Amino acid sequence: MMDKLFKSSNTKHHNNTIRTIYAGDVDRNRAEYPNNRISNTKYTALSFLPKNMIEQFGRAMNIYFLFIGVLQLFPALTPVNPLSTWGGLLFIFSISAIKEAFDDIGRRRRDKLANERVYTVVRDGKKQSILSESILVGDIVYLENNSEIPCDLLLLSTSETENNSCFIQTANLDGETDLKTRYSIRETSKLSEQRLMSFNGVLECPSPNPDIYRFDSRLSMKVNSKVNTFSHSDWLTVDASNLVLQATHLRNTDYIYGLAVYTGNQTKLGMNKMSPPTKWTKLDRAVNQITVFVFVFQLIMVLIFGLIGDLFTYQLDKKAWYLPPNAGMFKSIVVVPLRFLLLNSMMIPISLKVTMDVTKYTYALFINWDLKMYHRASDSPATANSTALSEDLGQLEYIFTDKTGTLTENIMLFSKCSINGVVYGANSNSGNSNNDDGDDDGNIQLLSPSSSQTALEDPNLLGKLASKSIYEIEFFKALALCHTVVIGQPHHNEQQQEQGEDQVMNNYKASSPDEEALVKASFKLGIKFINRTPSQLTINVMNDSVDSTYQLLHTFDFTSDRKRMSVVLLDERNGVIKIITKGADEVVFQKLDQSNSNNHLLDTYRSQIDEFAHYGLRTLCVAQKEINEQDYRYWFEKYYQKANTAIEGRSSLLSEAYDMLERNLELLGITAIEDKLQESVPQTIHCMREANIKVWMLTGDKYSTAIQIAHSCNLIDDNGKLYTVGKALHDQSNAGAHPAISQKDVEMSIEALYKEIRSLPKNTQEISSIIIEGHVLALALIYAADNLLAVSQLVGSLICCRVTPNQKAQVVKMIKDTGRITAAIGDGGNDVSMIQEANIGIGISGREGLQASRAADYSIARFKYLQELVLVHGRYSYVRSSFVANYSFYKSLFMCFIQILYQLFCGYAGTSFFNTFSLTSYNILFTGLPVIGFVLDKDLPEAIIRRNPILYTYTQEGRLFNRRVFAGWFIRALFQAIFVFCITVGAFAYGSGSTIDYNSVSMISFTGIIFIQSLTLYFESHTITWINHILLWGTIPLYFFCVFFLNSVPTMDTYSVMTHLFDSSSFYFSLVLMVFACIIPVLIIQYIFVLYKPTISEIIHQVRLTSFSGSDSNSNNSNNNGQKRYSSISDEETSAFSNMIDDKDLLNSSGSNNHSNRNSIENPLLGNINERSRIIQYKYKKHQNGNKDGSDNSNSNKNQKNQSDSSSFQKNTKFNTRKVYYEKMVHLVVGPREEEEYENKKLYDQEYNDIDNDNNNKSNSRQAPNSKSNENLPLLSK
Question: What span, in angstroms and rounded, lies between the C-alpha atoms of 426 and 556?
Fold first, then answer.
């Protein structure tokens, strides 16, 4: 609904027109702008039926069945009753229409509640109570505390006269529960209530647009003046901080007055209400391809049998002179083929879409209900926002993840800082803690982030502050002043006025956790930020008796393009104007006064920044300078004032003005903030990689920080190689690529990387990584996108650092366009673009609000829940849906093949073998309902899937629904149809010689089909619950109830048919014979495949059956290392069984002694394996797209810019769909059933017993990737 909610600051206006609003003159505004009535409904009473029908017939399958249904209305064409198609079509349409109607009725009710709320507005100089829908643009709206904002309002005045502010809660808009501060315009806030009642100024603002972060407008308080003749001095600047948005709530403020700017569906929220992008799963596309194949096969059969029918009719007309003459050429050429088309129309199952939709919806419910993904500390369950994409969770090949708040906690700790070249929070032996002048060699020896001492506890820093050292005092004063933190106060009461200073710090509200950490750090060290108004900041320095007050002249906000923020302040004590800037080092260093800076000290700072980043710390540079008052006035009047009152292009003009003031700065120091990893992140990433899923990290952090975090969370293997795009192959320095790298250098670097990595062994390629910075990525995506794609697919992981939100989406799209299934996971608004670009979007409901969660297809609270979401729910969803799709085609083909066989006995006339009841009820009632129970099926227990991520590759490669698998079901349907038809006809037509009518023969076959379908579902199921039993076997009594009812209706064709059949022994004999003939051969074939070519799931079932069944005496059959032999399989049988398996799914040893040491298994998920567990060595052929040498490839060059000097490199980077296999040995762990149940229970109880363990145990979150310790692993340890 809100896919455009989080646009960047360069978002263009909705159009180029400007809206002019006359305050208090509603009659003048009424003609141009709508009232405040909101409508989110899709339909009206008159438009519902036609509009819904148009939507329904927008699907190709529905158009097909409508075409068939229309043809069946012509008696000369149809071989069956039109009810056989129209009944199912109407049922499906009715279900969809009823669902849409209920959804729309719910929307209408919510709209009615919103439109009928009562609000107070000022009209004709007095307050009036009106309904929300009657509010007009230009109305002055009066709101009291806790009111919901009815429309977008320009804030004119508030009850907080001291700071002209109010607090709003934007949970309905962006999911954030923290209070936001909005400010009234300084000039209008001074107006008395009487003046506000008659306020009639003029506002110029952009036309309605969806950008909630921009409101570049201007207000004039002059009355009845010609607007466009006002000078710049007449205009008052208005921006987003003065706008309160519809659907937010007023908090902790007695009242406000606001001017209605945007109303109804033209509000910011209304402009963002858009349908989410349509996504199709890989399985859906495969089903569509099979549907096309079936349709083509159907047309071929129509042409063949139509031609045979025409020839047969022609020959019959010559011999059977006594029959009425043929109707003519039209009937011969058109009618007979159309009859065959209608006869076989159910080859495409009409129930397929409904069945798939029901199963997909059920998968979403399972995700929502899964307590193993419930985070109790934040009361956040897993949520499936999309009900159509669960199968893609089972076929993921790439996961793109953000870092901050996704892999980390987003809880910032002020860890270290450097002031005047001196590092605080470092080791005592650093050799520089007493270096007041900063004259060191730059070789800083820091504590690791796990050190218990931070800069806040460093005695050297505390001593410097106590002695009021100028460098340290100025540094922390800058931190206390350069920010956008507000002090959130509860509603006024007596207790509030008695708050201490610590309570003030606890009430800090910041838009960024980094800012909050910095301001709190300065507070704890004695430089305390204690008050803020729209125009003033107040701090206390080291408990001075007099607070320091600064006029806040300007705030230059942080953006992803600027990568810095600044404040311009006037010190009221001495009248000095200064600017304070903090931001990324590569930006701030460019703004320094190079002529006055100590170059040696700058080199020291750079070295310190690299070492901070080496430990995964987030760094910021802090700088300032004093500004001459005359220079400031000149800048303000010539540049800033003009830019700040512009409506169009305000952002770019302001950015230019900011740059003019942010020059020749003096560097004060560097901050280093620690952001801890979430628990189990390294194990989760290891698990994903074991499942053959590549994990890429896309972050805005600097080069060194990204590398350190990647090491900590297992993205970079310690035994692998790390390559940097834009650097020499063997350059291992901490610095990234040169900032001014050229296009040619980028292309040559990628070419060199490709040749180097391609020469490595395949197992080395898998554990190698590539890192690329944002400025290099920008060039690579333009000039060498295909080559970058080829290189990236060779390695195990890729890290993109210093990237923008748009670049994140571009990287995701680059991989997605190759046909790979991708998932993107993030927690903030800057991740929304990549989340929506990926096949699967996953949002983390974290400290940055719910922007990502609301835009995503799935929402989880912690990164570790990916294991459950992907490996368990994703795998199960794909397995279940694959069977449902295969079975739906199979059961329809079964019936159609019998119809085709019957044509051999009816002169190819296109006559239906089955009656109307059979055709109408078969697809939906007797086979459609039982197959839905397959959503409960589990081919393997959850515990085994968690222990063995390699099992995910079975679904990832799409082995359960493809042309080969469909061919098997196709052949099964054909041969079973032959058996059923031949047995039926043979038993009665050529058996006893007794006569039997057409309806009786039809019902014999149909009765056998009902039994065959129930047994097929039973034998194909892995899990049978009481629900499955009801659905499977309940269809049989339901069938007999229906046929006996029809048997007693004299007007039906089936009248007394079943009565005669029950009196015939041939009926029972043929029924048993056809069931055995159809089921037993299938079971025999499946058994042979299990013996000679088992799947990985069947291998595990064999192990579970042979190892954990029988008496406890089996426990004696164990070797010295605790591994037990399979009691019922000898060594010779084991060897033979292994050799029978195809090398694509090869079982090398099944419980033999050749793997004697469990501790050698390099898989941290195995944990403390119970002594009764079994370990299987499993060798499989891992495939990937590439050339014969095993190298990955990319798409052919799509852009002429992607030319490379090396022709051989371009030749090797052409995308080839050929599958290249290479063998890989893995180990499977299979445990007894009671152990599986224990592990499942432990996962359910985990969040209740261990809430946020990482907050209490830092070492857990920083565990080394290759640590042998398994005591913190949640899955397997006891």
Answer: 33
Percent of the chain with pLDDT over 90: 24
What is the H or E stretch that residue 570 is in?
A: strand 564-571
Please check the confidence at residue 1200 and state whether its pLDDT lies above 90.
Answer: no
Asked if 139 and 21 count as a contact pair (C-beta separation under 8 A), the reply is no
Beta strands in 683-821 (DSSP E): 694-698, 722-724, 769-773, 797-801
**Closest C-alpha among 882, 857, 883 to residue 870:** 857
Report strand pairing: 383-384 vs 126-131. Answer: unpaired
Catalytic hit among 402, 514, 786, 1145: 402
Query: 84, 892 in Cβ contact below 8 A?
Result: no
Q: Is 533 exposed, middle or buried (0-12, 13-18, 19+ CB in 10 A)?
A: middle
Q: What span, in angstroms and rounded, lies between the C-alpha atoms of 1113 and 1107?
A: 11
Alpha-carbon distance of 284 to 290, in angstroms, equals 10
The whole-number pLDDT of residue 816 equals 92
pLDDT of 828-860, one tens digit each? 777 888 988 899 999 888 666 567 787 888 999
**Listing from the earlier edge strand, what are the strands of the sheet with 1219-1230?**
1145-1149, 1174-1185, 1219-1230
- The CA distance from 84 to 1055, in Å, is 19
pLDDT of residue 8 exceeding 50, the answer is no
For residue 304 the two structure tokens come to: 């063949």
Average confidence score pLDDT of the chain? 77
Binding site members for ATP = 402-404, 515, 558, 582, 618, 699-701, 802, 808, 830-831
**Coil, strand or helix: which one is 487?**
strand
Interatomic CA distance for residues 613 and 621, integer angstroms? 13
402 is catalytic: yes
Q: 587 with 572: CB under 8 angstroms?
A: no
Check pLDDT > 50 for residue 270: yes
Q: Beta 508-509 vs 486-487: how paired, if at all?
A: antiparallel
Residues tagged in the binding site annotation: 402-404, 515, 558, 582, 618, 699-701, 802, 808, 827, 830-831
| pLDDT at residue 1121, as a whole number | 35
> pLDDT band at 891, cuts 50/70/90?
very high
pLDDT tens digits, residue range 169-207?
877 666 566 677 888 888 888 888 888 888 888 888 888
